[in-house]
């Protein structure tokens, strides 16, 4: 019977075969412990010399990443987190791997990134991708269960929602085009047709940032809701993030264990989340001795981390000054210097994971903002149409997938959260 490692529990006591790779092995002159992996999980195979001397010699000669069919009996094993191991009685090598570059010794990040196509096989990287997958699945579950429709915005675009400095230019035959920075403007159009929508796709920022939070290509989840005020959107955000955290805790227990993630801090992530205004945040930072920040300036990573450290949950920083936010944000009636927006800052120094706002729905106001931003009205005529024909208050937000994966996995750098991250100076592999 051919099974996969994650089915082992169902086959306890039975003779099975698994197609797998050798992650590592250790042993003595009498017994070999084979660390097997098959993509679905990791399991130990045991080969005892006394039982079969030829098989023992074969096992001893296996090299790292050799692919094979391993046969034997599944046994319960209380000592491992996985709970099962195999008493091996047959090994059929498919391909003997020689000189695998990623050995059990420590390697530097640049070497590992050069070998990303192989590094993906390692136990920790496998765990991070499992968590990424769970977040992808839970995102679909959350929004579909709550009555949202998935609308896919284009990737080749003629407009720039988040300013013009970070655009990837390309040619669209004879026209100029940009790779999408955000699907938001298209999601707004879709919300006027479908009410509640979300997009989930790749976005691109030609940002010369080389930090542990920045990717050049990242995936964003962008819900957009007609008739939702900013407050309503904040509630969706905290429920969504709580759901993601709790689903990861429930379904990724082994992965979190492999990553040594402190799950007690994640257990506490329950809605509602605390909120402070930008103005309060500036005051708090000044009290804490950050004399480099003044009202009107944007926060950097150290500022966000300082604010986050005051809470054990993600925190919303609301109502930023107009000048440092995008053109489409609705003015805050209580303080017209600011807009109806919020950034959600993750705990433990992971920084901003969500940016969201209520959108301007008045035609004249939006038109003026586009002109002031120097964006050129022509490319935004269709966007202005949404305010010409049955405009309604609406709100939405964007959650960065990789930053969320980094936070929940507890990995320090977003480069480990995308299968093939695009970074400043890295397009290979
Ligand atoms: O704050 P941002 O730029 O917001 C928007 O793009 C809005 N149009 C979203 C919306 O309202 N529909 O980006 C949203 C999120 C950030 O909070 C962050 O998590 C992630 O996208 N993000 C990045 N992640 C990795 N690398 C980068 N360079 C990122 N830039 C933004
Ligand atoms: Mg932002």
UniProtKB/TrEMBL annotation:
<keyword id="KW-0030">Aminoacyl-tRNA synthetase</keyword>
<dbReference type="InterPro" id="IPR012340">
    <property type="entry name" value="NA-bd_OB-fold"/>
</dbReference>
<dbReference type="GO" id="GO:0004816">
    <property type="term" value="F:asparagine-tRNA ligase activity"/>
</dbReference>
<dbReference type="GO" id="GO:0140096">
    <property type="term" value="F:catalytic activity, acting on a protein"/>
</dbReference>
<dbReference type="Pfam" id="PF01336">
    <property type="entry name" value="tRNA_anti-codon"/>
</dbReference>
<dbReference type="GO" id="GO:0003676">
    <property type="term" value="F:nucleic acid binding"/>
</dbReference>
<protein>
    <recommendedName>
        <fullName>Asparagine--tRNA ligase</fullName>
        <ecNumber>6.1.1.22</ecNumber>
    </recommendedName>
</protein>
<dbReference type="InterPro" id="IPR045864">
    <property type="entry name" value="aa-tRNA-synth_II/BPL/LPL"/>
</dbReference>
<dbReference type="InterPro" id="IPR004365">
    <property type="entry name" value="NA-bd_OB_tRNA"/>
</dbReference>
<comment type="similarity">
    <text>Belongs to the class-II aminoacyl-tRNA synthetase family.</text>
</comment>
<dbReference type="Pfam" id="PF00152">
    <property type="entry name" value="tRNA-synt_2"/>
</dbReference>
<dbReference type="GO" id="GO:0005737">
    <property type="term" value="C:cytoplasm"/>
</dbReference>
<dbReference type="GO" id="GO:0016740">
    <property type="term" value="F:transferase activity"/>
</dbReference>
<dbReference type="GO" id="GO:0006421">
    <property type="term" value="P:asparaginyl-tRNA aminoacylation"/>
</dbReference>
<dbReference type="InterPro" id="IPR002312">
    <property type="entry name" value="Asp/Asn-tRNA-synth_IIb"/>
</dbReference>
<keyword id="KW-0067">ATP-binding</keyword>
<dbReference type="GO" id="GO:0005524">
    <property type="term" value="F:ATP binding"/>
</dbReference>
<dbReference type="InterPro" id="IPR004522">
    <property type="entry name" value="Asn-tRNA-ligase"/>
</dbReference>
<dbReference type="InterPro" id="IPR004364">
    <property type="entry name" value="Aa-tRNA-synt_II"/>
</dbReference>
<feature type="domain" description="Aminoacyl-transfer RNA synthetases class-II family profile">
    <location>
        <begin position="131"/>
        <end position="429"/>
    </location>
</feature>
<keyword id="KW-0547">Nucleotide-binding</keyword>
<dbReference type="InterPro" id="IPR006195">
    <property type="entry name" value="aa-tRNA-synth_II"/>
</dbReference>
<keyword id="KW-0436">Ligase</keyword>
<comment type="subunit">
    <text>Homodimer.</text>
</comment>
<keyword id="KW-0648">Protein biosynthesis</keyword>
<keyword id="KW-0963">Cytoplasm</keyword>
């Amino acid at each position: 019977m051919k099974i996969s490692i994650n089915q082992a529990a169902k086959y306890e006591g039975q003779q099975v075969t698994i197609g797998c790779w050798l992650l590592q092995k250790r042993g003595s002159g009498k017994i070999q412990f084979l660390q097997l992996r098959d993509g679905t999980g990791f399991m130990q195979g045991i080969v005892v010399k006394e039982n079969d001397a030829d098989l023992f010699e074969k096992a001893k000669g296996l090299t790292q990443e050799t692919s094979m069919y391993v046969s034997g009996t599944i046994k319960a094993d209380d000592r491992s987190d996985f709970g099962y191991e195999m008493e091996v009685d047959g090994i059929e090598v498919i391909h003997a791997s020689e000189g695998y570059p990623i050995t059990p010794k420590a390697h530097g990040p640049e070497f590992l990134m050069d070998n990303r196509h192989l590094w993906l096989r390692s136990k920790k990287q496998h765990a991070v991708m499992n968590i990424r997958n769970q977040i992808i699945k839970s995102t679909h579950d959350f929004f579909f269960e709550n009555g949202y429709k998935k609308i896919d915005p284009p990737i080749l675009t003629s407009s720039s929602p988040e300013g013009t400095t970070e655009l990837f230019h390309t040619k669209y035959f004879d026209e100029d085009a940009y790779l999408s920075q955000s699907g938001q403007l298209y999601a707004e159009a879709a919300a006027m047709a479908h009410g509640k929508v979300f997009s989930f796709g790749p976005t691109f920022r030609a940002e010369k940032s080389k930090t542990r939070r920045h990717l050049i290509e990242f995936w964003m989840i962008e819900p957009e809701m007609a008739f939702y005020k900013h407050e309503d959107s904040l509630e969706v955000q905290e429920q969504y993030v709580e759901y993601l955290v709790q689903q990861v805790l429930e379904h990724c227990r082994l992965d979190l264990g492999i990553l040594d993630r402190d799950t007690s801090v994640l257990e506490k992530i329950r809605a509602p989340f605390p909120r402070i205004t930008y103005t309060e945040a500036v005051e708090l930072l000044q009290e804490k001795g950050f004399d480099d920040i003044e009202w009107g300036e944007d926060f950097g990573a150290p500022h966000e981390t300082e604010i986050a450290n005051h809470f054990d949950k993600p925190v919303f920083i609301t109502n930023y000054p107009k000048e440092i936010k995008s053109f489409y944000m609705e003015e805050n009636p209580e303080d017209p210097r600011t807009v109806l927006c919020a950034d959600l800052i993750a705990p433990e120094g992971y920084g901003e994971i969500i940016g969201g706002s209520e959108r301007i729905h008045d035609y004249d106001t939006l038109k003026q903002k586009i002109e002031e931003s120097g964006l050129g009205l022509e490319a935004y005529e269709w966007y202005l149409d949404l305010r010409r024909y049955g405009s309604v208050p609406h709100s939405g937000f964007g959650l960065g997938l990789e930053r969320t994966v980094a936070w929940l996995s507890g990995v320090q750098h977003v480069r480990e959260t995308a299968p093939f991250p695009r970074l400043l100076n890295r397009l290979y592999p």
